[in-house]
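seq as requested:
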Amino acid sequence: MLSRTASDASFIMVGQEKSVDALPAQPSTSGSTGVTYAHDWSSAGTGGKLSTHGRHFVDAYGRVCNLRGVNLSGNCKTPVNHDHDSFPANHADVTFVGRPFPLEEAPDHLARLRRWGLTFVRFLITWEAVEHSGPEVYDTEYLDYVRQLLSLFPQYGLVAFVALHQDVWSRYTGGSGAPAWTLEAVGFDLHGLEEPGAAWLKGVKGGGHTEDERGLWPCGYQKLAAATMATCFWAGDMFAPKMKTKTTDGREVSIQQFLQDSFLNMWEVIARTLGNLEAVIGFEIMNEPHRGYVELQSLHAFDYNTDLHLGHVPTAFQSFMLGSGHSVAVGHWTRSFPLPTRKTSQRIINTSGQKAWREDGPTQGKCLWEMHGVWGWDHKKDEGVVLRENYFKRDPHSGREIDWYTDFYYPFVKKWAERVRSVTSEDKLVFTEPIPNEFCPSSWTPERRPTNVVYAPHWYDLNTLFMKAFGNFSVNVQGLSRGMFPLKAFYWGQKGARDNFALQMRNIVEAGYRSLGETPVIIGECGIPMDMNKGEAFETDRWDWQTKMMDAMLTALERSLVGFTLWNYNPDNDDRRGDDWNGENFSWFSQRRALPTSWLDYKQTSPTLDNGGRILRAVVRPYPAKTAGIPLRFEYEMNNGEFTYEWATPDDAAADTGKAALASVHNPPRSIHPPLTTNRTEIFVPAQLAQGRKLVVRGLKPQDAYTYDAEHQTLAILTHDNAPGTVHHVTVALEPGPKPAFDVNDFWSDYGTQVAGSAVLVLALLVVLVGSYLS
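struct tokens:
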């Protein structure tokens, strides 16, 4: 049987049972059926709309909303008609219509995400998708497609924030994001970037899967093309004032003004097109921003602690010379231990003398930074010379030391937010993030940020990403890079991985609270590589380590009480190509493994929607979606299906004092909360877990009541005593419990017997030696 539309789950009340019919009616209804469900974020499911209050998302009834979902989708980085062999030719004629999937396939995917409880979407678009043909030439067909797709979301309980995605500036510099004409405006030759090492493009042409290419793409941030583009975008007026270009109406403007005005104009078109949709609750300015050369401390080296060194890594000065057509000996870095990489060799590259700059471009074939006197070529000695070592560290005109965040990023974020809201509404949420792997800067004070801001940093286990391997041994790279004693940064087993990831996640979240105060935090990206451990799971179809890592990551998120959007749900993913971008393979869903549309049943209880999913037992988990109070603690053990949840009724008289106290994940303020107009808490309990089993609910007070709506995967709890400050507690178990997926091991469970035995032997030997000495 491919479809089961009825659930045979039942439930047990431990203690005094009370009929739910005698309690207040459901506060919200969804759709024509008049039935609410926990994970419905549409206006019908939330009583109007989602908003923010303090660190929380809240619905119209004052309930705290825990938003979980996905990035949709990784395939939005590349156009539908992308061709590995001809790239970067025909860049003006690309189309992204159908990314992330055709409109006719939308019900399949949206129903699937609803069944899995992942109904909060980070919807990805790129600048290239909107404006690939040229400045102010917008792809209205693509925008119409996106509008039609997002219009379908509320029917399935989904909402989204629209995020402008970029990596390493653009596809044409080895990543994704900006259109090709932005590089041409600065003078780059799109066909001349690879040979002089100005960009690494193999990864966007189908590469990145071999050992020597694995994980190289982030090094593109330091390479000439991407670093120059980011510098011109953020700080061109300061560092490249000689670079001028003409607008479409013939005006000559600085390169910074040209790029930023084009960016803002493009965003206004997006906001105007999508801003009035029910599903769109906000916008994110830019994925993983990067400062380029701004604040670069030395032209002779990048910072090993912050900039990835792998493969050929030319310094900024070497990049300048290479881009100008000179041959240069460049260091080559390989993976190592205990340091991540080390320099193992060097090789002369660009022996053909290829230039990265167009002779017919605005620089007339000359390096932009040579044009500004940062370096020059000594023709007598036939070598390059650094002329201004501290050029990017200080304002070249005043000598003032600069800060990328305060001087460039914060002002532009505010300008962007004002532009977006000018064509939408003041209550639209704006999502922002810092440079990847950095904590929230303490300088991000209220006057430097927009209103209604949501902090949306990213988290990945850097050790796993770098090694593309996960096992019993895990490392806290976040801690090591900040001076943690190495032995404290090493963890063993699944318990160790959970604790390791939880500490890192808590550090990110609490850094946000310390800097921003009571501001909502969403982890905008977090995920695991499906092709870890040399891709052995594709051969064996055993996903044990992927399951363990996903569980450890989601456990960490649950302990920090924050929402998230997983990276990523990609229908185009397959076992051979992965996500088909720079060798990445993060999607735990593949359309090629799914059932055809004609076989699907869209009901939430239908397992037909699960085909195509991997490691779903770790991904699809219970969670408190709408809480009539302040969440305090949530713990879920996927091996037995049991979870515990605690929350408190808000208390205006609570003593929430001190900024440090308010920054705690485990001790949230209880006095900062809008009025609650319902006592109904709704918990998503997936049909995958509950079908064929009984829910055993413990810990509620005698006059509390609950009901489980199996058809809509919702456990509703109605509390009776809601006096200010009251703490509620519930533990939910399953009978019979699911078969354990793995052991939650640690060092002592694995080696405790051996350690104890060795200790006994050592002690016995000491006794013998002491006895011999005394005798």
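Residues 1-25, 28-33 have pLDDT under 50 and may be disordered.
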